[in-house]
Amino acid sequence: MCSSDLISYLLGTIHTDDPRVANLQPKVIEALNQADVFLMETLPPRDPSIFMLKQGAIAEMLTEKEFDQVRELAEFHAMHIEAAMRMKPWLLAVIFDLPKPKSMYSMDELLLAKSEEQLKTIKGLEKTSEHFSVLEDRKSTRLNSSHLGISYA
Fold first, then answer.
1. Nearest CA to 91 among 141, 25, 26?
2. What pLDDT, on the 0 to 100 scale, is given for residue 143?
3. DSSP SS3 for 45
4. 3-state secondary structure (DSSP) of residue 42
5. Other residues' Cβ atoms within 10 Å of the Cβ of residue 95
6. CA 121 – CA 130 distance, rounded (Å)
7. Nearest in space to 9 (alpha carbons), one of 115, 109, 132
8. CA distances from 28 to 44, 57, 122 (A)
């Protein structure tokens, strides 16, 4: 409790759509309903181009075998191959490391949507540009065979 008698709730979220996590417990919904402000890791980008290559396509960086693996993984993750080919390598690596989607929304997205429905003040702990800039480092943006060789069965 603060001196102003305001109550704060802290919920650690995980970026998954697994129903065991994404089906929000009544206590979580109750706490969210009582909150005036929803504070999340980072706000979703206003401009989705932050996730797209400025020039070229992933296909230009891949061998034919790697391209086939990307196509398989894109299908597995219900992505259009044309969209996957324009995404930044770090984003594909993140997506391809995830298990097969079970629903349309992750826990974070559900909490954000409920907060928006309730017209809460919504803020991010980090600016979107700061959050994703760490992934822009040239050394970490390579989509290589280790990302393509993951087990997704």
1. 141
2. 53
3. coil
4. strand
5. 18
6. 21
7. 115
8. 21, 42, 17
Question: Cβ neighbours of residue 107 under 8 Å, at least 6 residues apart?
Answer: 13, 14, 15, 16, 17, 21, 22, 24
The pTM assigned to this predicted structure is: 0.73
First to last CA, the chain: 47
Instruction: Give strand pairing partners of 42.
Output: 126
φ/ψ region of 105 (left if φ > 0, alpha if ψ in -120 to 50, else beta) reads beta
How many angstroms separate the CA atoms of 47 and 45, rounded? 5
Distance CA 56, CA 53 (A): 7
| pLDDT tens profile 2-26 | 567 788 898 888 888 888 888 889 9
CA dihedral 143, 144, 150, 152 (to 10 degrees): 40
Contacts (Cβ under 8 Å, ≥6 apart) of 61: 89, 143
Q: Is the dihedral of CA 93, 98, 101, 106 positive or negative?
A: negative
> Tell me, what DSSP letter sits at residue 122?
E
